[in-house]
């Protein structure tokens, strides 16, 4: 065997062993070894020896030399020395390998090669190897900052064979605090968020700030100073202003005004940065659904200023005082006014990700993972009628998440491979995978949809392996009523839906809802093919 090939094979297995020891997220990936100068080698050659010593302490030096399209934020020697002093280490050798591994993974984005041109004064869309988000911001002097804490020192991108390196002036400390932790820290007696914390405790909505699998959240926090501006300093005064009653036990009921006010400050469908919120007014759907049932917040730009729930009558709205407070499970935005529930100026479209489920996110560490080189399939049949998972049944009830007969149908949670150029178009990179015998079905419950004597256009984004055989049919029933038919078109196996609902190949039909609430959707496969159901879109007709 050629000597170079022997070295490559040995190098791969050594790296795999190191990844396993470090419990690295990339341990199941396969990479080509570069024959040229990769990141770790370049760093050592160019004098960044403190960080390369840390790489070796973490058993990740060879890993960072793999050809994996890395973006690396590397502290210079002075920054590492300052970190050692602050943590009272005499040398890098005193740092345990698990801590070293955490520092390296938090500073490494493992599947995307960013350059300065990609930075947009925002949270980076890809997570680090530790599963966390980093924020890049600019200042008036043209400096770039990571997490508003570490300044990027190099004026130009440092290109190496397997990625891009940015030298920074401070070691990035992994964010360990959850939204709940941040609220706790600032909500103790005499703290700046004390009344908001008391509100979450009193209404039982504090659970919304706590980790739930890989799910990310957005929380809008009202500081005490804002409550004081409107003459509120106690929960009783807040309840009186909301007409929620004085019975504290009733505050925990989901239809109570106190509960709804607290839940209105949480979005469970992702961590939305200030830039993302600012972008929404330019779209056709500037609304986000909150955890208060059938309640949305609306973004707008007025006179160049960003507002939440802007009122044209009072010419005022809610603004963000401090945005993008990073947490392990999402983002906090501190706001400058009480965010009271307001009817949106336009009826919202509802995008329903069919795999958006808290049980799935807590069960599967690879929930919505975007960096896997192989597709991931988790069979879900064992969840049916299991008392641990009451939302998965073979006998539909009023509060189920999914219902199907596991003896006749197989349902799985599916995550697309990063290399799959078709399926990586799936919303959130995941889907429900169905293997139904002919004419079998799965039944689900929609999110809350507002009824306003409005007709909704209904679309189903999906992947059908038999798409090259025109005529295969999917039938959709809503509240027991059949809504049109979906026929495969013999072309693209993946059918998405435009927000306007004009994609006829994914268009199901129309429906009018008599009441605001959640609705039963049953999806039946008339062929018995493998289907991957992505999302449904309910678009109000103008």
Concise description?
The chain is α+β, with helices and mostly antiparallel strands and 542 residues long. It has three domains: 3-168, Roll (FAS1 domain), CATH 2.30.180; 179-335, FAS1 domain (Roll); 350-540, Jelly Rolls, CATH 2.60.120.260.
Protein described:
This protein has 542 residues and is an alpha+beta fold. Helices cover 20% and strands 27% of the residues. It folds into 3 domains: 3-168, FAS1 domain (Roll), CATH 2.30.180; 179-335, Roll (FAS1 domain), CATH 2.30.180.10; 350-540, Jelly Rolls (Sandwich), CATH 2.60.120.260. The protein has 12 helices and 33 strands. Strands 19, 20, 23, 24, 26, 30, 31 and 33 form an 8-stranded antiparallel beta sheet that branches. A hairpin with a 2-residue loop joins β17 and β18 (330-335). The protein starts with a helix and ends with a strand.
Mean pLDDT: 84
Oligomer: single chain
* Tally of strands: 33
* Shape, principal axes of CA atoms: globular
Assign the structural class, choosing from mainly alpha, mainly beta, alpha/beta, alpha+beta, or little secondary structure.
alpha+beta
CATH superfamily of the largest domain: Galactose-binding domain-like
Helical content (DSSP H or I, runs of 4+): 10-25%
- N-to-C terminal Cα separation, in Å? 69 Å
Feature tags:
542 residues; alpha+beta; FAS1 domain; Jelly Rolls; 3 domains; seven-stranded mixed beta sheet; 12 helices; 20% helix; globular
């Amino acid at each position: 065997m050629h000597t170079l090939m022997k070295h490559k094979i040995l190098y791969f297995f050594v790296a795999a062993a190191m990844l396993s020891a470090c419990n690295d997220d990339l341990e199941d990936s396969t990479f080509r070894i570069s024959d040229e100068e990769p990141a770790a080698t370049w760093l050592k050659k160019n004098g960044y020896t403190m960080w390369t010593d840390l790489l070796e302490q973490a058993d990740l030096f060879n890993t960072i030399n793999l050809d994996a399209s890395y973006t690396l934020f590397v502290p210079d020697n002075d920054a590492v020395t300052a970190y050692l002093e602050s943590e009272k280490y005499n040398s890098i050798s005193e740092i345990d390998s698990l801590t070293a591994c955490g520092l390296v993974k938090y500073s490494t984005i493992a599947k995307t090669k960013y350059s300065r041109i990609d930075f947009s004064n925002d949270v980076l869309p890809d997570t680090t190897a530790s599963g966390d988000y980093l924020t890049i911001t600019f200042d008036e002097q043209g400096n770039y900052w990571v997490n508003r804490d570490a300044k990027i020192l190099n004026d130009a991108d440092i290109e190496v064979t397997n990625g891009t390196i940015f030298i920074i002036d401070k070691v990035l400390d992994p964010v360990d605090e959850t939204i709940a932790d941040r609220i706790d820290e600032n909500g103790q007696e005499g703290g700046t968020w004390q009344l908001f914390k008391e509100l979450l405790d009193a209404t039982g909505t504090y659970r919304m700030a706590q980790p739930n699998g890989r799910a990310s959240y957005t929380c809008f926090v009202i500081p005490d100073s804002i409550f004081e501006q409107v003459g509120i300093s106690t929960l009783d005064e807040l309840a009186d202003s909301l007409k929620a009653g004085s019975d504290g036990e009733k505050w925990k009921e989901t239809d109570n005004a106190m509960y709804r006010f607290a839940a209105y400050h949480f979005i469970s469908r992702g961590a939305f940065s200030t830039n993302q919120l600012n972008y929404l007014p330019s779209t056709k759907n500037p609304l986000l659904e909150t955890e208060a049932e059938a309640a949305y917040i609306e973004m707008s730009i007025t006179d160049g200023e960003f507002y939440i729930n802007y009122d044209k009558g009072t010419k005022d709205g809610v603004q963000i005082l401090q945005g993008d407070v990073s947490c392990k499970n999402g983002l906090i935005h501190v706001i400058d006014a009480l965010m009271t529930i307001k009817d949106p100026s336009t009826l919202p479209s509802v995008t329903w990700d069919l795999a958006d489920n808290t049980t799935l996110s807590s069960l599967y560490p690879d929930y919505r993972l975007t960096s896997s080189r192989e597709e991931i399939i988790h069979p879900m049949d064992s969840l049916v009628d299991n008392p641990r998972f009451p939302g998965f049944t073979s006998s539909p009830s009023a509060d189920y998440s999914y219902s199907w007969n596991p003896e006749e149908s197989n349902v799985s949670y599916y995550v697309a491979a990063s290399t799959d150029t078709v399926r990586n178009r799936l919303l959130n990179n995941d889907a429900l995978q169905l293997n139904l015998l002919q004419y079998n079905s799965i039944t689900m419950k929609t999110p809350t949809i507002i009824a306003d004597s409005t007709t909704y256009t209904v679309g189903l984004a999906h992947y059908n392996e038999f798409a090259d055989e025109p005529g295969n049919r999917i039938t959709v029933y809503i509240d027991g009523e059949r809504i049109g038919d979906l026929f495969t078109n013999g072309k693209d196996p993946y059918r998405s839906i435009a927000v306007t609902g004009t994609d006829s190949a994914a268009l199901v039909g129309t429906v009018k809802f008599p009441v605001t609430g959640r609705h039963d959707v049953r999806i039946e496969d008339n062929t018995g093919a493998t289907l991957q159901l992505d999302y449904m879109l309910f678009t109000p007709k103008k």
